[in-house]
Write a structure and sequence with these properties.
By secondary structure, the chain is an alpha/beta fold. It has one domain: Metallo-beta-lactamase, Chain A, CATH 3.60.15.10. The protein is built from seven helices and 14 strands. The strands form three sheets. It has a six-stranded mixed beta sheet, covered by helices on one side. Strands 7-8-9-10-13-14 form a six-stranded mixed beta sheet. It has a two-stranded antiparallel sheet with strand order 11-12. A hairpin with a 2-residue loop joins strand 7 and strand 8.
């Protein structure tokens, strides 16, 4: 076999190996706000649940059945932020899996306000009770051998974070950056100027091919938003 063919075989083996260990991303549009809940998982069946917005028994069953059918072991619940549409299923998921919730410390106040915010929408929401660990800018959290970097991107909410996987070129952005849009800033402790700065300095500096999985609506990518987002 020629050296060229040997190199081709080696590259294919590397490519196949990389493909086999890639993080898989499953999204669910839940609750009346059409919030995107994500399950990230790897080939070893390790998983994160991000922003559990499941509302009611039917949506909870969809989420739990997916985890069971794929034999996933949920390691953590991660909150990009704690607005009520992103945590409607938080207590239910926590009670079922008994795993720590990870979020930014300055988002704790937002989480604690949810029972009051629920009253505005006409329903009851009890305060969350469970184990919480706080994340900081620049830290990484691992899912097996994969690492997600924590980006603090305030503006939509004070402790909002995004989760960036550099090698696989994706970011879980929550309600910061959307397809040709940005997150609202008229909610408690929202800040429009701060949000724009977060996007410019934390997200738009990522590789143009980076796929953006956001909190509502369709995925997009960084390169497209740099060119076409009307807020910039």
């Amino acid at each position: 076999m020629s050296q060229k063919k040997i190199n081709t075989v080696i590259l294919q083996v590397i490519k196949n190996h990389y493909s086999s260990i890639m993080i898989q991303i499953k999204s669910f549009a839940f609750n009346p706000f059409s919030e995107n809940t994500y399950v990230l998982y790897n080939e070893n069946k390790d998983a994160f649940i991000i922003d559990p917005g499941n509302f009611g028994e039917d949506e909870t069953k969809i989420l739990v059945d997916f985890i069971a059918e794929n034999q996933l072991e949920v390691k953590n619940i991660i909150l990009t932020h704690a607005h009520i549409d992103h945590v409607l299923g938080l207590q239910t998921v926590y009670d079922r899996f008994q795993i720590p919730v990870l979020m930014h410390e300055t988002e704790k106040e937002i989480l604690e306000r949810n029972p009051m915010d629920a009253q505005r929408f006409g329903f009851f929401f009890r305060p969350f009770s469970g184990e919480i660990h706080f994340l900081k800018e620049g830290e990484t959290i691992n899912l097996g051998e994969d690492f997600l970097k924590i980006l603090h991107v305030p503006g939509h909410s004070p402790g909002h974070i995004a989760l960036h996987h550099e090698a696989q070129k994706f970011v879980i952005s929550g309600d910061v950056l959307f397809e040709e849009s940005i997150g609202r800033t008229d909610l408690y402790k929202g800040n429009h100027k701060q949000l724009l700065e977060s996007i410019r300095t934390k997200l738009f500096v990522l590789d143009a091919e980076t796929k953006v999985f956001n909190g509502h609506g369709n995925p997009t990518n960084i390169g497209f938003e740099r060119q076409h987002n009307p807020f910039f």
